[in-house]
Write a structure and sequence with these properties.
The chain is α/β, with parallel strands linked by helices and about 190 residues long. It has helices at about 1-25, 50-60, 80-90, 110-120, 135-145; strands at about 40, 65-70, 75, 80, 100-105, 125-130, 150-155, 180-185, 190.
């Protein structure tokens, strides 16, 4: 009887451990340790979240410059994504601190080489990477391996923590639900910054 009870207790403990691990396993992929840096680099993709996080970190003093990676060959209607990003940057109060970096690479490894060329024009070697939570550990590893001579840190954060309303007021290339959220210029929507 005691042996059975012991087996059930061990099985329950193992099951509880597995449930706890499964509930928190995603955190193993997230490396969120922003430090003061010379440059904040926003990796391409998820334009409805990443640039907003980069601007938030810039406004908080985590970097003096913001470099936003943008696919060079992607078009949205008649505009290239680089043109849209430049139009977006022109409407920001921080425009003098923002640079658009056209990239042609389709993988994080290739993007690291494209970004390296843009970062060569920036002062300093401390770079804060902004990407998706699930991509933090992998992107840091790739950039550290591929681009030598830089001190890489991660500035990503859970989407819900980017602003009081989850970051939606900083959407870039999507339509707005009401006119108070966006101002338009030349038919390209740019978010108003409060």
């Amino acid at each position: 009887m005691r042996a059975r009870k012991r087996i059930w207790l061990v099985a329950a403990a193992v099951a509880a451990g597995l449930v706890s691990f499964a509930a928190n396993a995603g955190q193993l992929l997230v490396v969120n340790a922003p430090e003061r840096s010379d440059v904040i680099l926003v990796l391409a993709g998820e334009t409805d979240h990443r640039p907003a996080r980069g601007l938030e970190l810039l406004d908080q003093g985590y970097g003096a410059r913001l470099v936003i990676d943008v696919p060079a060959t992607t078009k949205i209607y008649e505009f290239t994504q680089v043109q849209l990003a430049e139009k977006y940057a022109e409407g920001l109060p921080e425009v003098a601190a923002v640079r658009i970096c056209p990239i042609v690479g389709l993988s994080t490894r290739d993007e690291s080489h494209d970004a390296e060329q843009c970062l060569a024009r920036e002062k300093g070697n401390r770079v804060l990477i902004v990407t998706s939570d699930f991509h933090t550990r992998r992107s840091l590893s790739i950039f550290r391996h591929e681009v030598r001579g830089k001190h890489w840190r991660n500035g990503s954060d859970c989407y819900g923590g980017w602003s009081s309303s989850g970051g939606d007021e900083n959407r870039l290339f999507r339509g707005a639900s009401n006119s108070d959220e966006f101002s338009t210029g030349n038919d390209i929507a740019t978010p108003k910054r409060h």
